Amino acid sequence: MTIGNLSTSEQIFTLATWLAGDFSNWDQAIANPPFFAHIRVCIRPLPQSLTARGVWLYLEQAYDYSLNTPYRSAMLQLIESSNAEFPIAIANYKLKDANAYFGAAREPQKLNSLTLEHLEPLPGCDMQVQVTEHSFKGQVEPGKKCCVFRNGKNTYLASEFEVTEQTYSSLDRGNDPETDDRIWGSVAGAFEFSKKASFAAEVKQIGV
Ligand code: CYC
Fold first, then answer.
1. Which of 43, 64, 141, 178 could make a disulfide contact with 38, Cβ separation 3.0–4.6 Å?
2. Which atom of ligand 1 is nearest to the CA of 193?
3. 39 in a domain, yes or no?
4. Domain residues for 57?
5. Which helix or strand (DSSP H or E) is residue 31 part of?
6. 77 and 71 in contact (C-beta within 8 Å)?
7. What is the total count of domains within the chain?
8. pTM surpassing 0.85?
9. Residues with CB under 6 A from ligand 1
10. Residue 170 is part of a domain; what is its CATH number?
């Protein structure tokens, strides 16, 4: 499917259906165990809409051996952007009581009662997304504004990803705001995930 010719709202819907799934980097972890742990990324459409605009997805990233205690969870809002080069934006939120929802990516009824009040915006952490012929490519908005305090250090997020119908790759790093040196994140390039289950049928077509 060529996605370049779709309207922006159709592209947002397509991106949501491509992201909605249970992903694994098993092949990469087996080929290069010192550098790549076996990670699962599970992205679930919200059963309800939280706003008039956008498509909402809940995300968990976990070690495969500990699926129900993810090391990161987030709520993603896919929305239209006014930047012609990057027609889609993904706003990132954290959950105020993240632990209460652990496991919900695979038990989505746990998400039924979620409202906007349960979320905390992550300012400066919007992903700006461009559309290629067969993929969506994103990067964190410029300006070193997405602050992540990790391992006792202030860092800013440097992140990029690419999504196709069956694959998801991402490179997340935290860099030093002064020197731009890498403080955390992969030293061996992007994580390469493939889709093991799809939740595309759960994405609702709503106003974008
Ligand atoms: C952090 N990863 C983040 C943050 C964003 C993203 C915005 C900063 C906000 C936060 O703290 O949660 C990434 N957001 C995205 C991406 C999309 C998006 C990619 C497109 C769907 O909307 N990340 C990976 C690897 C793994 C990883 C599998 C190993 C390096 O993709 C880790 N990301 C990771 C970690 C953090 C992070 C450890 C910091 C979380 C923290 O310490 O609070």
1. 64
2. 28
3. yes
4. 3-197
5. helix 26-31
6. no
7. 1
8. yes
9. 39, 61, 72, 74, 76, 90, 92, 94, 122, 125, 127, 138, 146, 148, 150, 157, 159, 161, 170, 172, 185-186, 191
10. 2.40.128.590
